[in-house]
Amino acid sequence: MRPKVARLAGRRARLVPYEREHVSTYHLWMTDPELRALTESDPLTLEQEYNMREDWETATDKCTFILYDITTLSVSTTTSTATGTPTTTATTPSTTNTTTTITTTTTTAPISTTTTTASTSTTTTTGDLHGGSGCNSSAVSVSDPDPDSDSAVMCGDVNLFFNTYDECPDDPRVVELEVMVAVPSSRGKGIATEAVQLMMLYAAIVLDVRLFVAKILTRNSPSIALFRKLEFVLTKEVAVFGEVVYTCAVSPDLVAALSALYPEAAAACRACVCGTSPLNES
């Protein structure tokens, strides 16, 4: 299904709908065997990738956003008067009010709520390449297409899948959630965390989702560590598939906490909702 909002943004990540102009970059990423293995994806031709994008747009049982790294939005390029060569000065947006602070490896902390199972973030089922050991893919960093600035980098995607959880196979309010940061230089910045928080906010408000499920390969230790840090609940171990399952229940406290973190994104989500729900009230 096509997202009902044009974009969702945090301080490090921006989510936009998957358009045709994104396909060639995405296809380039997925020529990497490591990315395909971690995301359990089959190799596709470029034509098949375009068809897959169309399927994402029209299907009713899944939803995707393309992920941009916006920590580079303040990168400026000047020309040296002595040599005529470009000189790049990078100033990454800070999470503090001090304008001179440069932040390069900030990781978003979990939000505490009053529910034991609620968390502000989940990561991929198998493809959360947010950095850490075992994630050494050489995927190419590309800055085209760019929704806002020449320096924003298309770096991954975040997805929802409906009706894939065996415990609740027919409940449309239960979704599997996954995120992939394909570009190595965009890992370790908290981008995957923000992307998933934004997707959770969108899903809870717009799609009335009540439970998020993440299935992670047991060998994907960075994703498992991130889930544990963010207080997700280990629900099941599936030895035959070599994976573990974490779940996160949606609560009013969780939605309020995410809305406080991303007020503009929350407002955009609520603007496209017809009617109200108790969980949608901040």
TL;DR?
The protein has 282 residues and is of the alpha+beta class. Helices cover 25% and strands 22% of the residues.
Descriptive notes:
It is a single chain. The chain is α+β, with helices and mostly antiparallel strands and 282 residues long. It has 7 helices and 10 strands. The strands form 2 sheets. Strands 1-2-3-6-7-8-10-9 form an 8-stranded mixed β-sheet. A two-stranded antiparallel sheet has the order 4-5. Strand 7, helix 4 (191-206) and strand 8 form a beta-alpha-beta unit. Helix 1 (23-29) packs across helix 3 (46-58), helix 4 runs parallel beside helix 7 and helix 6 (252-261) packs across helix 7. The chain is globular. The two termini are 26 Å apart.
Number of strands: 10
Global morphology: globular
Q: What are the secondary-structure elements, in order, as H or E?
A: EEHHHEEEEEHEHEEHH
Mean pLDDT: 75
Counting DSSP H or I runs of 4 or more residues, the number of helices is: 7
Low-pLDDT stretches are 75-109, 112-147
Strand order of the largest sheet: 1-2-3-6-7-8-10-9
What structural category arises from helix and sheet content?
Answer: alpha+beta
Into which percent range does the helicity of residues fall? Answer: 25-40%
Distance between the first and last residues' Cα: 26 Å
Beta-strand share of residues: 15-25%
Relevant terms:
two-stranded antiparallel sheet; alpha+beta
